[in-house]
Amino acid sequence: MIGTLDPRVATAAGRVARSRxxxxxxxxxxxxxLLAPLVGCATNPVTGRRExxxxxxxxxxxxxxxxxxxxxxxxxxxxxxxxxRYVNEVGQRxxxxxxxxxxxxxxxxxxxPAVNAFAMPGGYIYVTRGILAHLNxxxxxxxxxxxxxxxxxxxxxxxxxxxxxxxxxxxxxxxxMSEAVSKYGGMAQQALGLVFLxxxxxNETEADELGVEYATRAGYDPAEIPSTYAMLKRVSDRAxxxxxxxxxxxxxxxxxxxxxxxxxxxARAGKNGLTVRHAEYVHGLEGMxxxxxxxxxxxxxxxxxxxxxxxxxxxxxxxxxxxxRTAVTATAPEDRAGMQVTLADAGTATPGAxxxxxxxxxxxxxxxxxxxxxxxxxxxxxxxxxxxxxxTERVLAAAFxxxxxxxxxxxxxxxxQPDDADFRQVLASARSFRALExxxxxxxxxxxxxxxxxxxxxxxxxxxxxLGPQGLDLExxxxxxxxxxxxxxxxxxxxxxxLPARLH
Length: 504
Known about the structure:
Strand order of the largest sheet: 10-11-12-16-15-14-13
GO molecular function, one term: metalloendopeptidase activity
Helix content: 25-40%
Shape: globular
Oligomer: single chain
GO biological process, one term: proteolysis involved in protein catabolic process
Strand content: 15-25%
Distance between the termini: 18 Å
Radius of gyration: 26 Å
Low-confidence stretches: 1-38, 169-199, 241-250
Structural class: alpha+beta
Number of strands: 21
Mean pLDDT: 83
């Protein structure tokens, strides 16, 4: 995946070889600009209590609205409109019974394989196609959306922003706002850090409770919710990301499974006809893209192919690669060097004219290189000097390549010393840039979810093993179905598997 970033080389240089962030730097700057607060109190919609808040409800809505564009730019919106409509319908049903039914709510499915969901202030809720594929009923989806709605209605983001700002503005000012803050004295930072961890964990507990409450109010069976946390724990363990509960800013999924089970039992007591919709939900996953979408770029060894944009290039051997919707990056061992490929907002300028314009505007203090032709494409390749803070400068390896009339590819790299071996490897990689013309590579097929009905009873492992080539191993497929390998499957049971991708 690759998209347009800030065309200023100075900004891009600061991002070279960094790991993926939640949102692009431009979006983050826009959000931070919205956080200039006015001290005041606000009523918590859930508790009805007045709370110290540096972020008003109107400011929350502004943050969410501005953040929407940044989130979609980074992760992309999933292209299946029927899936978007379905998730929005379920979400609106839950929002209607929440503590903020009059808020304008937005529910978006992101085109990302991660198993994730999150909320932004002002009623902006996001779920990934990755988590949708791992759920097994509409009631489970309702639990996920209800949890995220709970973060918004309980104003958790406003609480966190308020605490961060109180902690960062100095105790002299903080003490004027709250005697509870002023008493921390010289240990304020450490103490506040512990309080923040506690409140973050408390926030998650509150959101769990509200998720069960909202799902039940909307007519869903909350007994489906605990299995979501069982799935999340298995996904986390399999990915090697397991953290002890006391070290995590979120309660351990295992603890949450037990707690939400008790909450669900109490919430559904005396209620009949609660909705689950297992079969309808699972059938709706048929054909959903699973995993990384190779049409947005993929690696084979050190070679990178981008079918949608129609180019290929080779990265230095042994460097670690990453491909996101906005950039492709590569980092040398021990982070001694790195490079990044993005799109530059260059209009119709030639590569040479674009570099000259950056120099004339002061965004570059020097540029040494020249025009080249790379596989028939017009390019400028060389080294540029970027001004930094306090009069400092940074020399970067650089290439600007006109891929099409509307697309200028920008390649920037940094190393320990200009013109060292890593610096030269970046330039060699840039010069490997070429048009992708192999018809087979131009039309790859991503992994997709396949839904089948069990024809012959047997154990989960036996049934899955008889279904032909799989894109996931047995354990991955078991997690996808919230099953164990030894579970018995009956005739007619629905089973999700993943069809393998085809790259060429």
